[in-house]
Amino acid sequence: MRLPFTKMQGAGNDFVVLDATRAPIDLTREQMRHLGDRRFGVGADQILLVEPARPDDVDIDFRYRIFNNTGDEVEHCGNGARCFTRYVHDRGLTDRTTVRVATVNNRLALQLQPDGRVTVDMNRPVFALDRVPFNADGLQPQTEGDFQLWPLDIGEGRTLPVAVLSMGNPHAVTRVGDVREAPVLDLGPRVEQHARFPRKVNAGFMQVIARDQIAIRVFERDAGETLACGTGACAAVVAGIRLGWLDARVDVQARGGVLTVEWAGRDDPDAHVLMTGPAETVYEGEIEL
């Protein structure tokens, strides 16, 4: 089977995008892994599937499915959502500048800006620990601002203070002095696979530069460290705002580029998180599967 694809990237987070709007695409886990393989396939952090809305969908333009390069389907990807928006608009699948999509567990509104960047309404962050999910039994958190830092046992007698929340997928965020020197490749897997996160977790490392500027690195669940993580940027900003470290609008410097995240949650408990950043097509091609 020859499969057409489009390679895209948002702030260095790269994707293989597949168009299933005209005919269904049902790939095996092994085929997904082959697509994502950087040596024997196309290579990407994740594979994005563009599907038509279902007949019973209300106020939905498309279905948006996300698979890690391991072949596992995941709940959310903010950088992927921006690429999704550029894809359906540039391909003529819609002429709307605001696109409404349904993911496996959420609904998103995606807006194409005049400068080509895309703003994603990431919905409300989730703080209920059982919905992250995170098992805090027996832990005593430290409170800063109006949020908690949980002491996570990372072995060798060490604990790591993490803020825990969900942006449609689970995140644990810790603050570091210099993100360039942070031991992400050592601590990232320990946090990602920690037993207190039954579905694993995305591990974020955040350096606060100013109240309106941070730098981050993210060790993503089942994908390892990536050049950018949209939900990770949002989780870091939301945690930083609740902990009293950040203002409501923050520029986030990832290794692959800059994202802007806004959240008015200190004043409005129902506020949605807005993330704005780039999305670009790299090339198009076909692959034999």
Give a written overview of the molecule.
The protein has 289 residues and is mainly beta. The chain has 2 domains: 132 residues, Diaminopimelate Epimerase, Chain A, domain 1 (Roll), CATH 3.10.310; 141 residues, Diaminopimelate Epimerase, Chain A, domain 1. Helices cover 15% and strands 41% of the residues. It contains 4 helices and 19 strands. The protein has a 19-stranded mixed β-sheet that branches. A hairpin with a 2-residue loop joins strand 10 and strand 11. The N and C termini lie close together (5 Å). The mean pLDDT is 96.
Structure keywords:
19-stranded mixed sheet; mainly beta; Diaminopimelate Epimerase, Chain A, domain 1; 2 domains; 289 residues; single chain
Q: Report the uncertain regions.
A: none
What is the number of strand segments? 19
Give the overall form: globular
Identify the CATH homologous superfamily of the largest domain. Diaminopimelate Epimerase, Chain A, domain 1
CATH class of the largest domain: Alpha Beta
Using the 3D structure, state the CATH architecture of the largest domain: Roll
Computed over alpha carbons, the radius of gyration is: 18 Å
* Oligomeric state of this protein: single chain
Alpha-carbon distance between the two ends: 5 Å
How many individual helices? 4
Question: What class do helices, strands and sheet pairing give?
Answer: mainly beta
Largest sheet at a glance?
A: 19 strands, mixed
| Percent of residues in beta strands | 35-45%
Helix content: 10-25%
| Overall pLDDT level | 96
Supply the number of structural domains: 2
CATH topology category name of the largest domain: Diaminopimelate Epimerase, Chain A, domain 1
Name the helix and strand elements from N-terminus to C-terminus, one letter apiece. EEHEEEHEEEEEEEHEEEHEEEE
